[in-house]
Amino acid sequence: MATPLLQTRDLSMHFGGVKAVRNVNFSLAEGELRCLIGPNGAGKSTFFKMLTGQLEPTHGQVLFRGHDISRAHAHQIARLGIGIKTQVPSVFDGLSVRENIWLAASRIHSGEQARRLVDEMLERIGMTKAAEMIVGQLAHGQRQWVELGLVLSTDPELILLDEPAAGMTHEEVQKTAELVREINRTKALIVVEHDMQFIRMIAKQVTVFNQGSVLVEDNVDNIMRNPMVRDIYLGKQAAA
Amino acid sequence: MMLDVRGLCTGYGRIPILNGVDFTVEEGEFIGILGHNGMGKTTLLRALMGYLPATGGRVHFAGKDITTLEPYRRSRIGLGYVPQGREIFPGLSVLENLRMGCIERRDISEQEIIATVLDQFPRLKPLLDRAGSALSGGEQQLLAMARCLCGAPRLILLDEPTEGIQPSIIDEIVETLSRLRATSGLTMILVEQNLDFIAQLSQRILVIQKGRITQEVQPDALHNASLVGEFVGIAT
Amino acid sequence: MKARGYNMAGLALVGAIGLAFMFLTPRFAELDVVLDLTVYMIMAILALSLALIWGYGGILCFGQSAFFGLGAYTYAITMFNMGESTVPFLLAILLPAAFAALLGYFMFYGRISDVYLGVITLTVTLILFNSVNSTAGPEFHIGAARLGGFNGIPGIPPLNIPGNKGAVIDLEGMFYLCTGSLLLTYFGLRLLLASQFGRIIVGIRENERRAELLGYDPRAYKLATFTIGGALAGFAGCLFANWGNFVSPTIFGLSQSAQIIIWVIVGGRGTLIGPIVGCIGIQWLSAMLGANQPSGGSDLWSKIFANAPLILGSILIAFVLLVPKGLVPTLSDIVLSLFRRRQRQEQRGFEPQQAE
């Protein structure tokens, strides 16, 4: 059996008395797209933070291509090929859109090539006209696009998207879904989202988190019909 | 008339965002505001609350001209604001957050206010001692709304309350807000991207484009998402 | 691309003014004026060192004077021991740099956060002050150099042409050296900041977490920035020791550190010209108001108006409240808005559309 791209073994995070993530065993194959859903506070973002080195697990392991990255620094993990779009958009607010993208692109390329890639990325995220705007002055949804551009520019193998559709209009949500499907042609993704319409546009396999552990893993149709999941999370949405 | 906005203009430094916004809100109405990102939805709410100075136009609240009033004064006369991103006090407990919301109330005791508000938000009852930062996003949203209600506002400005909130709590929020409309005559201006949510709660919906209110639609018009794209969509 | 055009023109202007200033001043000014101007140049280099670390790097260092003083003292002590200035000159830059690297390593790799950085750097400079201040007796010496304690080290031999002990620098030569150094420092920093390294440290300042998540190690970049800043301050210190041929522990003092910060705040954080202007402006104003002591005059007017600390304190308060961005950024904003007013007639300025 091929080594999974990403694997966690008994991964746990305790903050004082609070067990935010509990013994999570998770596995993602090369090029797989997984959706991660669950109630607010279920531990999804904490899980992501452990995968990207922002938090050191209390115990357990994170393996990327078989290598233990549980205690690696965030910048090392980024260089290994994991990129993350965080729940609260994390961009360079005082700099222009172009400069933001450049900072990401220049980690991989230099000089003229970097500049070209920046132009291409600006086009891809629909920010060419806004390229010289200061990111801090953009609307929330636009900042999300900038962050997506940042993450894509470093060309990671595995992309973690934490609520990519937040603050987006319906058309932008569709555009994001298309982008996710397009990225998935060459890269693996784990997507956390609450927008069920968005999930339906992209999902195949879904992992449901609840209270720090994996509740159930199944394909998207079964998950939507699962009574436990409806109870703790979906509410009436499942009917839609 | 609860709120009367005429020709409101504002922006950030050299960049104008609102270019003459006109609309009115009657007492007890829930109106929704729809529009693409960057069109001025959040800017409008911030300007109504006084965080952005008006470079043109006037705002009247319950007959009084509040165009140049500072945010804290607007809050005192009955405007409540629940910003995008919640902004609850992370270092304070749920109870302390609610108590902060009661600060301007002189009419009845804090305990009574909080008890009444908690009845509307029962999910917060077991969480009173929890620190704000330890709450989940959905719980924080409920807290932000509850805290706002502690100040007994007559008009609430809600900025994208469902963003990042799980579907079952969104249902709860719809229920709670509908109940509040029915029982307490609360007036509300709601900015949202979630079409179902805005349709369920609003009596009418204003579309904002390039810093102006360009049309008004009925909630049923929102049920076909692709059509919505058309009328909210813009040609340059 | 228009911005780059302005940039080039601006740089050329600065270069032209700088060179003109450098070559014309000794011709037309009295020697004592040249002497005063020389120390302004030196202090401007010191201001630039903090402009780099704090303005661009976002590292609040309250003890930049530590490196300044180390540079001065290193030059003095080594010079007394060696008699020829090449090694002392180099050491005066390398030792503060090494010290900055060591201190920086503990602070940045220890993940010390902003406020505490300020506290630690301040404490370091105070420790240096107190230690050196108490080295007054003859038993305190490094080789042939007595540390001198609160008396300082007088009679520091000046720089000579490398290899030629006899060819010692004179007053005019010092002026050329210091002004030339300031110009080199300014353009060198401009180059550095336009490079990939420079743009990354600004990114780290803006959002360290995001820089990390993109794969940049912020600790290493901050360490490099801090070390370069330390080296620059040390260099300024060496020049200072040559200018006055004297150095004393007050160079490590709180007052000196605070002044550097004030220059950068008043001149404009996030620019290079700003701190230069702020530094020279405030230095000149202080000199005009009669050094750093309240004037000898006993009447109320002189007590207020010739009271340099009072005036300078008021200036700082006024700037922080009214001109928080600093002099140069505010002036450039005003100039730009005048240009833009013309453009605005044609352009309907609103936020960009969603590209569809």
CATH homolog superfamily of the largest domain in chain A: P-loop containing nucleotide triphosphate hydrolases
Name the overall outline of chain C: globular
Output mean pLDDT of chain C.
87
* The CATH topology of the largest domain in chain A: Rossmann fold
Question: Looking across the biggest beta sheet of chain A, what order are the strands in?
Answer: 6-7-8-3-9-10
* Number of helices, where a helix is a run of at least 4 consecutive DSSP H or I residues of chain C: 14
Largest interface: A-B, 32 and 36 residues
Number of domain modules of chain A: 2
CATH architecture of the largest domain in chain A: 3-Layer(aba) Sandwich
Give the overall average pLDDT of chain A.
91
Count of structural domains of chain C: 2
Q: What is the CATH class name of the largest domain in chain A?
A: Alpha Beta
Q: Please, could you describe this protein's structure?
A:
The complex is a heterotrimer of chains A (240), B (236) and C (356). Chain A has 240 residues and is an alpha/beta fold. Chain A is built from 9 helices and 10 strands. Chain A has a 6-stranded mixed beta sheet, sandwiched between helices. Chain A starts with 5 loop residues before the first strand and ends in a 6-residue tail after the last helix. With 236 residues, chain B is of the alpha/beta class. Chain B contains 8 helices and 10 strands. Chain B has helices at residues 41-49, 71-76, 94-101, 110-120, 137-150, 167-184, 195-201, 225-232; strands at residues 3-12, 15-25, 30-34, 56-61, 64-65, 79-82, 155-159, 187-191, 204-209, 212-217. In chain B, strand 4 and strand 5 form a beta hairpin. Chain B is globular. Chain C is mainly alpha-helical and 356 residues long. In chain C, 71% of the residues lie in helices and 1% in strands. Chain C contains 14 helices and 2 strands; from the N terminus they run H-H-H-H-H-E-E-H-H-H-H-H-H-H-H-H. In chain C, 42% of the residues are buried. Residues 349-356 of chain C have low confidence and may be disordered. Chains in contact: A-B, A-C, B-C. At the A-B interface, helix 5, helix 6 and helix 9 of A face helix 5, helix 6 and helix 8 of B.
